[in-house]
């Protein structure tokens, strides 16, 4: 129950589960779901495309058909006006096997008036934790492949009130992208972590540390060696565009792509607006903040959308 605040049972919805949940999931509905790295300890599912009539108690009742549900949490996305303001949520099961079974049986089913989208919750997603948007984030580069969220958190936990640590994963390969983010409540603690950890060995590599968020100092451009040993440059995701830019370009989209297909990918990052050009194969997705846009790019680049790897920038 580490990802959620415990929920007290509420009164059951007036709509019975059999009449509110539609039959077998359509293949087309499942195909648009992001392919995320699966941790065998994962037991939390992302549930997107929720009708506004679904509340916590009703969501728990529906998924309890698949096994014991520990917690549920629905996020009311007020910024997302498309299709009447759909919500999304998270369902935590007692174990991984039950969650995996629920993913297979519930993805694409119709609940009230919408076909829900179900997938594993993002690795490191801070559901139920304090919002880190107003905190001090630092970028950790050159991470070795064996460093996960837990190892990153242990390395930086000694520098004060650390609130979050996450490694960015490639959604196609399931491997680390080689960088991550750590959040602190206090700027002094974040500065101490940067000066102390920059150049220190974590796992099998010396890591590079600098500011990642707008509240800190803009980070420099680092050198990264490509697959063939040639040196290239990269910036931290928040430095890849203008500091006020909150819009993500999504390219290489198949012509049959709809706005509904894009929602499960971007809704956890706070959708404000989607402008889709299906005949031209791209879309512009406006998110709540620059940092959320940068994290969406880091998480979603290469994700399979309707059979093609999306290009996010």
Please provide a written account of the structure.
One of its GO terms (molecular function) is mRNA binding. It comes from Modicella reniformis. Pfam families: RRM_1. The chain has helices spanning 17-20, 27-31, 56-63, 96-106, 149-156, 187-197, 259-266, 290-300; strands at residues 44-50, 69-75, 87-93, 110-111, 114-115, 117-120, 136-141, 162-169, 176-184, 201-202, 205-206, 208-211, 222-225, 231-234, 247-251, 271-277, 282-287, 304-305, 308-309, 311-312. It is an alpha+beta fold. β8 and β9 (176-184) form a beta hairpin. Strands 2-3-1-6 form a 4-stranded antiparallel β-sheet. Strands 8-9-7-12 form a 4-stranded antiparallel β-sheet, with helices on one face. It folds into 3 domains: 17-120, 2-Layer Sandwich (Alpha-Beta Plaits); 136-239, Alpha-Beta Plaits, CATH 3.30.70.330; 247-312, Alpha-Beta Plaits (2-Layer Sandwich). It has 8 helices and 20 strands.
Low-confidence stretches: 1-19, 24-37, 79-83, 123-133, 213-243
Total number of helices = 8
Report the major sheet.
4 strands, antiparallel
What is the terminal separation in angstroms?
34 Å
**Strand and helix order:** HHEHEEHEEEEHEEHEEEEEEHEEHEEE
- Structural class call reads alpha+beta
Query: What is the 3D shape?
Result: globular
